[in-house]
Amino acid sequence: xxxxxxxxxxxxxxxxxxxxxxxxxxxxxxxxxxxxxxxxxxxxxxxxxxxxxxxxxxxxxxxxxxxxxxxxxxxxxxxxxxxxxxxxxxxxxxxxxxxxxxxxxxxxxxxxxxxxxxxxxxxxxxxxxxxxxxxxxxxxxxxxxxxxxxxxxxxxxxxxxxxxxxxxxxxxxxxxxxxxxxxxxxxxxxxxxxxxxxxxxxxxxxxxxxxxxxxxxxxxxxxxxxxxxxxxxxxxxxxxxxxxxxxxxxxxxxxxxxxxxxxxxxxxxxxxxxxxxxxxxxxxxxxxxxxxxxxxxxxxxxxxxxxxxxxxxxxxxxxxxxxxxxxxxxxxxxxxxxx
Amino acid sequence: xxxxxxxxxxxxxxxxxxxxxxxxxxxxxxxxxxxxxxxxxxxxxxxxxxxxxxxxxxxxxxxxxxxxxxxxxxxxxxxxxxxxxxxxxxxxxxxxxxxxxxxxxxxxxxxxxxxxxxxxxxxxxxxxxxxxxxxxxxxxxxxxxxxxxxxxxxxxxxxxxxxxxxxxxxxxxxxxxxxxxxxxxxxxxxxxxxxxxxxxxxxxxxxxxxxxxxxxxxxxxxxxxxxxxxxxxxxxxxxxxxxxxxxxxxxxxxxxxxxxxxxxxxxxxxxxxxxxxxxxxxxxxxxxxxxxxxxxxxxxxxxxxxxxxxxxxxxxxxxxxxxxxxxxxxxxxx
Lengths: 339, 334
Known about the structure:
The complex is a heterodimer of chains A (339) and B (334). By secondary structure, chain A is α/β, with parallel strands linked by helices. Chain A has 2 domains: 182 residues, Rossmann fold (3-Layer(aba) Sandwich), CATH 3.40.50.970; 128 residues, Rossmann fold (3-Layer(aba) Sandwich). In chain A, 36% of the residues lie in helices and 20% in strands. In chain B, the strands form 2 sheets. A 6-stranded parallel β-sheet of chain B has the order 2-1-3-4-8-7, with helices on both faces. Chain B has a single domain, classed as Rossmann fold (3-Layer(aba) Sandwich), CATH 3.40.50. At the A-B interface, helix 1, helix 3, helix 5, helix 6 and helix 9 of A face strand 2, helix 5, helix 6 and helix 13 of B.
């Protein structure tokens, strides 16, 4: 056992993911990366910068702009014994591959009676806030979490950018990693060795006694900021980082609600027919008698995301909106939301 | 085109009759409601699968469409398991989860049974990519209808396979109708091999009613793929004698057209040639039919006796049930 104290490393999200991919590819020659501009360009968000030089063009494989074919090729390669990482530049582009993700990756094991698994990892960028407007900014993580047969994870910390890929690659089923674009440039502490957290496990990032803020991905830092603001007002918020959207770690959510008796779900996806509604329903089903207030929701406004900074910021979950929702819950009410 | 030796001809004839009789028996079983759901029959197109699949090695992969019963049988999936799948039973080759449109068999590298038109093409490209990356000398044969050539997935997959020199044999089963839409009503250029030649891969049009012509072309195409220079494409011109599925009243084509095509029946074409060459006696075809019918009847009895999967197993096979044997990444790096 190593007894020397190793300090956590400071990394950005893109450095953490690059370190994770590099480690996986050094360890297992079945692992390769494929996607648009992952090689010579270095990745649209510079996540794979420099990897072509180490691993060569066979394993850092630039693809044409053919989302359906290269995602499907990843599925076939996975079924054929490889461990591909397929990068889709943004979640909006993933819709061009939705047929392959839904009708093949998610269905192959079941419709073959368990004979063919798809140990594929898809990485894609999600989220707004960068003034990229209505075709590069959406959070469709919850859509994908609707589909049985795939697993959906969303790192909200730099440590998870570093350490979620390993268990995702080891998983015998397809895993989609939704990487919030705002976190690529954010810095955070990273454990020097694998902390060994199961892929499906939610984690309480801040302990609190008065209200649970249930969130994931890009809105985790926002919720932590909101919790700090609430603390100044004497309200101790617990922040639950879901990490996995399918499966959902119900036990961790309900344990938190049982402690705080109030919950706000914060989701950068749209509110209607979305993940926040699912989590709210589960709390109602499993922890109804623990609640002292209706479950609140803070989501993105129901609009294709606009370009102008002030409009986009008004659409996205903010510290202010989370604090307002939490204060309403402390009063035993829910904020009225326009639909 | 060279003529094949008598033994090979006899085997091809037997295989085509086997597929034909299997399909006709399925149609009866559908009327008897033993088989449900959608059922797409291959009657009239037998020379295509028979000519190509005989040339595949056991280690080669096959990706098929929803009209794939014949392909499964010819690739070696046991008749009992295919019929039991039609019945939706435990002993079916997909455990009753797939049905007629989703036959699968890992042992025979039979990757479906894909019922999204064009959806199997990227899968085939990926299987071939895995073989190339792992240095395995294998081919993936991908069958699809001409309707798939209107899909973006075909063009993305053809480009990718050619760009990366992948060992894929693209087998376009051009039966002239994408369900009810005739080729010239869906394609601006109806010469499909000509269209594909733009992707920089060899492409040949083939008389898909003549199993010897199919064999000849498939030999050439497979030799090209196995040489490591990338994919090849066959446009196999054929015709579906029966309806698209059991629900199709065939309003979109003339009966006279069907009658005309039936004069090119692939089974009779080969049988007549063998009779002319003194390789088939007057009662031989009936004897072959009787022999395959017996095997098919045994599979019907097997399927009927196979138990139904219990509903308590409903949620199985959505995710892996036990860790699959694989190298542990951390262990390797240690």
